[in-house]
Amino acid sequence: MNSSFSHSFPAIRGVQAGREYYVSMFPLRLIPKLFVFDEDELIPELRAQRTLNKSRVPEISRYILDNRNSYVFSALTVSINGDVRFDALASNEDNKRIGLLHVPMDARFIINDGQHRRAAIEMALAENHDLADETIAVVFFIDKGLERCQQMFADLNRYAIRPSRSLGVLYDHRDDTARVAKLVTLRSPVFRDVVEMERSTLSMRSRKLFTLSAIYTATSSLLINTDTKTVDEVANLAVDFWEEVAVQFPEWQCVRENKLTAGDIRQGYIHSHGIALHAIGKVGNILLKENPKNWKEKLKDLKKIDWTRSNAKLWEGRALSGGKVSKAGHNVTLTINVIKKCMGLELSPDEQRIEEAFQRGDHV
């Protein structure tokens, strides 16, 4: 070893691709002190990982602080640029993998995966010192140069595919809106058995009519800033609302009764797409607030709208872009405008601005 002084960590030794690597546990208070990023001023070709997206850090930090009894972090992956020595506790086969990893103090640690977690830990520690002695796993690889570090980053992220939004909602037990969306899907005859719970896109052959992520978005829009109630009460209100909406769209019932396929309905009608649910949810939010006693009566106006996709004069540029359904923000707003006009509801200033731009043929 090149240095008379070294860090010593308890570690477990393993082998991947013929190379030794090590796994250890570190108290959170040491993470910001030991592990650093590449210098910000280096150009991408000379860095070993992406630059820090500072907007993500407060969100991750808040996740830790708001879920002190249930937060979960996966291991950091770190390269060591220096000569290390591993001293096994014993020479027998069972124990030679466990020992002390000695790292020179002049060696450099570079995070290959986990730089946002590291920054979030630092931010969370500044707010709550009780986190200091909690631990996180760290996987150490021996740095064989910049090219090796960059290849590790590429390999570690090559198959790091985010789960679908529907699956994220399905497995989220913290978000009350996710809980409500799942309760609505399970309780309502409208959605039972016709909601795709894992995927966020539907193929033409899918027998499902909606995705859980679409139900989540629409129900979230429906319930925003409504009177605070229990999750159970809010779910019952949402079920009541969507069942009344379904009465206006007999095609949904035909799918549940196997008289028509879900694919045919999605192909033929706008009202069976997430953009329509989102728009109806937003308008429904206004009805619940402004017409708490007769909102069901107002929903009957949905029948007056020609929801067929073939009605390009109405939907092209609104819910459709080049004949394909578009969920862009301005498309949702222009779909809301159709519903509001049909119901005799006043457009908000932003909705009016987008509508006027659409009528002029301007790009929103």
UniProtKB/TrEMBL annotation:
Whose protein is this, by species? Answer: Geomonas diazotrophica
Q: Which CDD domains match?
A: dndB
**Cross-referenced InterPro entries, in alphabetical order?**
DGQHR-contain_dom, DNA_S_mod_DndB
The protein's name is DNA sulfur modification protein DndB
Pfam (any one) = DndB
